[in-house]
Specification:
13 helices; 340 residues; mainly alpha
């Protein structure tokens, strides 16, 4: 293992662009205000749809959920987060980070606290914790974030492709997204291809020279993850994780009386999650909910079921992850400061 080194512009204790000292508190307050505002807007939109549909019908569906059902939904979400956390640990170990499973899980899960903040702050927070505990600079840990995002894209693209093969209908809208997700993951997980594309882009356009240099450096670091066994095991963990949440959505729809089939439910959940991410909104807020309700409606599910089902699955996935992150965040901050 090579000796950790600081980046050219970043010290070992802070991620790039992460404010410290007096600037930190205003930014934290802004992020919390944004998180609360987004949550309030989504609730307002769902409440409006529920009112238009009829509160009695919506509340009737919600009343079908008992404690056991809610626990099952949350447990399936935990399966997703746990498997993806193990995948993060595998990638971190492959990168050479001198951290154990506990620390890597703490970083991964704690980063969820910032899931709905702008600019992928959750990933910067993870890098800051790593930098404090290991002295590794941003440029050296950036490939870890890149391969993690690529693995999620690959898993979700493969799930969409499988759903298209086994579910009736839905080809027109899901196939392009599946191909896009798989294509992007292939590019990112093929270092030579990614570096070559960056070089050709710069030679053809002359644009973004610094960004293209960073892409080439990141591509060089991604070679550490190109081992077939590493990629295969990581792909399996990602598939099982996202299937768990898709299965939760399938169960939820069944409890509400909407029998659209397992593969169709998984397809709608994964597609809506990807569509929300493509909108650029933090956490896919707004876009994911709109896509999910629209796709359920297109499949014959009435708004009296589509609206509460969407609200419940988003609370038990995205917002549950944020609560987990908020619970772990203080511990991650304290432990990282103690390792300086």
């Amino acid at each position: 293992m090579s000796t950790p080194y600081p980046g050219p512009t970043d010290g070992p204790n802070d991620a790039p662009g992460e404010p410290t000292g007096p600037q930190a508190r205003p930014r934290k307050l802004r992020d919390l205000a944004l998180m609360g505002g987004l949550f309030a807007l989504v609730l307002l939109g769902l409440a409006g749809l529920a009112a238009a549909t009829g509160w009695e019908e919506t509340l009737e569906q919600l009343a079908k959920l008992g404690v056991v059902q809610v626990v099952v939904l949350l447990a399936l979400s935990l399966v997703n987060y746990g498997l993806r956390g193990i995948r993060w640990h595998i990638f971190a170990t492959r990168l050479g980070l001198p951290l154990g499973l506990g620390a890597n899980l703490r970083h991964f899960l704690g980063g969820f606290a910032m899931s709905v903040t702008p600019g992928r702050v959750g990933e910067l927070i993870r890098m800051r914790w790593i930098a404090r505990e290991t002295g590794w600079a941003f440029e050296r840990t950036a490939p870890l974030v890149l391969i993690d995002r690529a693995s999620d894209l690959a898993a979700m693209g493969l799930i969409l492709a499988l759903s298209l093969a086994f579910a009736a209908g839905g080809v027109d809208w899901a196939l392009p997204v599946a191909l896009l997700a798989i294509g992007a993951s292939v590019i990112v997980t093929r270092p030579a291809l990614l570096a070559g594309m960056a070089t050709r882009f710069y030679r053809a356009t002359g644009l973004f020279p610094r960004l293209m240099i960073r892409v080439r450096r990141a591509a060089g670091s991604l070679r550490l993850f190109s081992h077939p066994q590493t990629l295969g095991f990581a792909a399996a963990l990602g598939l099982l994780g996202w299937f768990a949440e898709g299965y939760a959505f399938h169960l939820l729809l069944g409890w509400f009386g909407a029998e659209i089939g397992f593969w169709k439910a998984v397809m709608i959940f994964v597609f809506a999650t990807l569509a929300g991410g493509l909108t650029g909104a933090p956490g896919g807020i707004g876009g994911a909910e709109a896509a999910m309700i629209a796709l359920l409606y297109m499949d014959g599910v009435g708004p009296e079921i589509a609206v509460p089902a969407t609200a419940v699955i988003r609370v038990t996935t995205l917002w549950f992850a944020i609560l987990i992150g908020l619970a772990i965040f203080p511990q991650a901050e304290t432990k990282s400061k103690g390792r300086r």
